Amino acid sequence: MSDIKKIKEEYLSKLKSKIDISQVNQIKTDLFGKNGLISSQFKNIGSVVEAERKKFAADLNSIKDELQDLINSKVNEIETAEINEKLAKEIVDITLPERSFVQGKIHPVSQTIDEISSIFSEIGFSIEEGPDVENEYYNFTALNTPDNHPARDMHDTFYLDENKETLLRTHTSPVQIRTMLKEKPPFKIIAPGRTYRSDSDQTHAPMFHQVEGLHIDKDINMGHLKGCLNYFIKEFFEVDKIKMRFRPSHFPFTEPSAEVDIGYEIKDGKIVIGEGDKWLEILGCGMVHPNVLKNAKVDPLNFQGYAFGIGIDRLAMLKYGINDLRAFFECDYRWLNHYGFDPLDVPTNYRGLSR
Ligand code: DAH
Known about the structure:
This protein is of the alpha+beta class.
C-alpha cells in the first residue's frame, strides 16, 4: 500500500474509535499541521515521477478531503454529545424563590430635564451642551458683563484659579455664546445643565440646574418670547390656563430684561399652579443684548432674538411637591425611592426623550 493510503487507513480508524476533543485536535495537527503527514505529502508532489504525479495529487486531495470531513463530523458529534449530557444533568429547580434585586429610580431632576427637553423639542428647539468648567470670558465678558460689573460678585462664583480665569459656570448662559460661535444664525436651542454658586440653604444649593433658551432669527421679538414661555409653562404643569407676569428686571446680557412670575395658590396644603393671587418667580429672560450678539459674531443689525434661563430644580420641586432643595443632592436612597420615577412605569403624561 502506498504511504498515503496507509496514512488514510490509520487515521480513519483512529477517528472512528472513541476519542475526545483534545485527541481530535491532536489528529488535526498530526495530519494538517505545518509538518503534518498530509501537509508533507503535498510538498512531495513535485518529486513524484511525472507519469504518476497527476494521479498521486488527485488521490492525495481526495484523502485530504475525506479525513477533513471526518474530523469535522467528529467535532460535531463530540460537541452535541457534550450539550446533551449537560442538558440531562442540569435540572432547573423552578420551585426556588427568586433572587431579590434593587431596582434603580430616575431622579426627579433627570426626569424634569427630560420633560423640559421634550416640550421644547416639539416646538423646534434643539439641545446644546456646554462644559461645567468654564472660562471667565464665556461666563461673563462675552455676556456683556465687564470686569468690574457687580454681577461677578453677585454670583458668588467658584473660581478655580487665582487669576479668576477658570470657574465653575454660574449659569447656563455661556452656552449661548458657544453655540453662536460654532454655527451660523438662525439659532433655536435650549441648553440644560449643572450650574454652581457659593450658596446653600433650603432653596439654594451650591450645585443646581438651569436650562438656557436662545432663539435668534431675523425678526424675533418679545411677543415670541412671551408665547414660547406661556406654552412651555402650560405644557410643563399640564394646565390649560396659566397666570404669568413679566416684571422689568436687569441682566447685562439682555435689553430689555424681565423676570417671569407665575400665579399660584395653596389648596389643602398643596401648591396649585395657574390659579390664585400669589406669585412665584421662575425665570429670567429678555431680548439678547446687541453686544452679546457682536461678541458671538452675529450681526445685530440683521439678527435679533430672545433668551431665557429657567431654574430646573425649582420647577421640579413645584411639580412634584418637594419642599427642600437640599434633598435632591443628598443621595438618600429612601428619598429617591419615594420621589424617583420607575424607569418602566413612567407617568402617563411623561414625554421623555428616551421614548
Ligand atoms: N443667567 C441668568 C441667571 O442665572 C438667567 C437668565 C436671565 C438667562 C436672562 C437668560 C436671560 O438667558 O436672558 O440668573
